[in-house]
């Protein structure tokens, strides 16, 4: 039974309408509606039968190192043959640089790599390669092209092991009149490349743009189609870059990769736990150390607080790198349970290195930094604070306590304030178990 009907789709967000619209009611884009022909087919395949789990043969996926340790780590130990990886991030963050390093590394290990550049000329790629010190590579080919059929022809003639597409939003199929970057073209190009990857067990890296709102431009379906979704992110002002995995059909998503963008290239930072702290001996009012958990990695950060007299009708609350609601909640607990008067105080927070911390495990560190700044007394040196604060002022256990404490001890910290029941098993560091916020304040600040 085949039924054909006309439908119009917004090429920005995928909104469907039975008639043409000038403005999309969903995303507000103008002139974004194009007609799509849908074939609604319902057919029965009599050869299909369900399988018992015992009948299914297990297969070991073959993982290949991308030659970039931090990328391998994020992927869960290398790339699986036949996997399609979507790498996205803001313009200028270093996506093309990362995939060029992968391309060069793989080709140096005997793989044939095709790098399709739809955005940059061969001269621009050459300049980047020179900057990265990439010399002659036997198996590395570049193709400045953005038409799908032309790319398909080259794929058939050179049959690369790995394909890199920079970027998916700039490739289009000339058979269809939809503009490139539209939902239709992105989906079509992705489906074609995924089919090619699966058929011949080739691995594919697709670079994807992100929109102003921070999501991958194009249809959400792109994220569903690919096997792995990676985000490359970092602060424009700092040269640190973090590679995160949002989806991974072949591994966990709780590993991150850390890099530094230098004048001479993208440098891997395998040991990043100390990067965000300056001096563990530092003692200043308002300064507290906290071991934050980024995936499976522990990173020590400084939480800095400044509490000053306010001359404004509504006191200022500026929290850089911390969750606004979470900090306000902690300030409310401090007012109510410790009788601190913050109503006429401006409160500022900052996290070192531009890192963003949203985990409740940082609550205790935030509270101690606030009290320390308010009283103008430094918190103890070489000490970390770990714990979630309940609305009652109690300190609650948190996840990953062992890795946090071990990493703090490894970096030379001598003492850790931890929730009750979390401190017994550590010999390398002195642990102070605390159950209530008032108790912490009393122990450290004598009141
Ligand atoms: P690029 O990989 O072009 O970013 P994307 O593909 O995500 O848009 O890298 C962009 C920035 O990185 C650019 O501003 C120059 C800088 N850069 C370095 O600082 N060092 C280097 O070795 C390279 C290649 C680039
Ligand atoms: Mg680029």
UniProtKB/TrEMBL annotation:
SMART domains documented for this protein: AAA
Residue ranges annotated for the RecA family profile domain, each copy included: 60-210
Top-level taxonomy: Bacteria, Bacteria division TA06
Family classification: Belongs to the RecA family. RadA subfamily.
GO terms assigned for molecular function: ATP binding; ATP-dependent DNA damage sensor activity; damaged DNA binding; hydrolase activity; zinc ion binding
Region (Lon-protease-like): 346-447
Ranges annotated as spanning the membrane: none
Annotated motif RadA KNRFG motif, positions: 247-251
InterPro entries xref list: AAA+_ATPase (IPR003593), DNA_repair_RadA (IPR004504), KaiC-like_dom (IPR014774), P-loop_NTPase (IPR027417), RecA_ATP-bd (IPR020588), Ribosomal_Su5_D2-typ_SF (IPR020568), Ribsml_uS5_D2-typ_fold_subgr (IPR014721), Rubredoxin_2 (IPR041166)
Residues that bind ATP: 89-96
Function (record text): Plays a role in repairing double-strand DNA breaks, probably involving stabilizing or processing branched DNA or blocked replication forks.
GO biological process, one term: recombinational repair
Family annotation (Gene3D superfamilies): 3.30.230.10, P-loop containing nucleotide triphosphate hydrolases
Name used for this protein in its record: DNA repair protein RadA
NCBIfam families named among the record's database cross-references: sms
Notes concerning its domains: The middle region has homology to RecA with ATPase motifs including the RadA KNRFG motif, while the C-terminus is homologous to Lon protease.
